[in-house]
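The instructor's notes for this session suggest beginning with a concrete chain rather than abstract definitions. Hand out the sequence below and ask the class to guess, before any prediction is shown, which regions might be ordered.
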Amino acid sequence: MRWRMVAVVSLGLNLALIAAWLLRPARPGRPPQHPAGTMAGEAAPGTVRTNVVVRRQFFSWREVESPDYAVYIANLRDIGCPEQTIRDIIIADVNALYSKRLATEVITADQQWWRSEPDAEVLAAAVQKARELDEERRALLTRLLGPNWEARDLTNLARPSRQGIALDGPVLGYLPAETKEAIQEISARSEDRLRAYLEERQQAGLAPDPVELARLRQQTRDELSRVLAPQQLEEFLLRYSQNASNWRALFGQLQFFNPTADEFRAVFRATDNLDQRIELLGPGTDPNTVSARKALEEQRENAIRLALGPKRYEEYRLLQDPLYREAVAAAREAGEPESARKIYLVNLAAAEQLASIQANTNLTAAQKQIEINQLALDQLKATTVATGQELPPEPPQVTTPPRRIYTLRQGDTLPVIALIHGVPVSAIQAANPNVNFSRLKPGDSITIPRSALGPVSTQ
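After discussion, reveal the predicted structure:
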């Protein structure tokens, strides 16, 4: 509203000055002077008269404003406001109205600061609602100013010099325009400071100092705290602070924790101050710094435990183990999410056995691979049982005759031996790679391989 009041005051002052000049009294003792050849009330040759019409010397903006835009436009015209100025005022006013509606009626992914991944349904609904509001805004301006209003809008289309941050939702969306502007300026200064620092370190060939980065973030917080109430500041930090971003990344890595808004807020409140203090300590390795950092980290872990409660804290801790995340994924895939703990125990036992196999120096590489394959099969069976599913039936075992030793008799030949035992000649040769069959004599022994065929009677 500030620009509008300035425009109105300026317009009012101009009208008042013109009226005062036209209505000023003549100086006493001096009759009005007219150029030669003219009469009073006539214009001098070459003089151009203005079309200014003085309606009232003083007016109040309240008499001009109206909740009905049609009346509002008529009032502006009644005080002699130029048409381009009327268009600028109406366009700016309507844009401000719908900007506020956009900030307060649309639920965006940024407002769901507790989610590590945006909700696809929320994104789709936000796009649809924003489109509907924009169409409604354009229709209103077309009805008020005619179909060519947008081509004439030279001053009120949004043309930001840099991308600002979204200040919408039930808390930030209702902030006054002056406060939003102050926040955008603080955010812009913060980005400039950070960029300048990083460029300076890069030019010097140095890595950024974590402590200095923490100080820069703290400076931004201090500036925000001067323009935002505590609840508003917390909402801003939940959406845009580095600490909140770190929590979203961690919960995303845990995959299955999915904190609620209340849980995320509780954890952030419990750890935010401790995280700031830990960051300001930096990575120092001197005994005092190490001791102070360890004490703060222990306080932080205890604060998380209290914020989440015993059951959710246990789930939070377990999900930091990749084996447990695998167990949860397997249980959900089987449609038995409550069996995750059982599968986790199976995974732990399998991991222990795998480590034992790999550390066994008495096994060859081939033997280790056989043991590992058998372990994978056993783990699969145990997981199947843990999820309440039935194991497939064991395949029937095929009984084959064992290898036999045959002693040659007088008159035996290799084809005859093969016929008697029901195996091919080539199979007998393959089973006796070191035997020269051309030199066999009665009393020599050879190996007869397994065969599913029964032996042929020698009778």
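Then share the key points. The CA atoms of residues 88 and 181 lie 21 Å apart. The chain has four domains: 2-23+50-152, 169-318, 322-386, 404-448.
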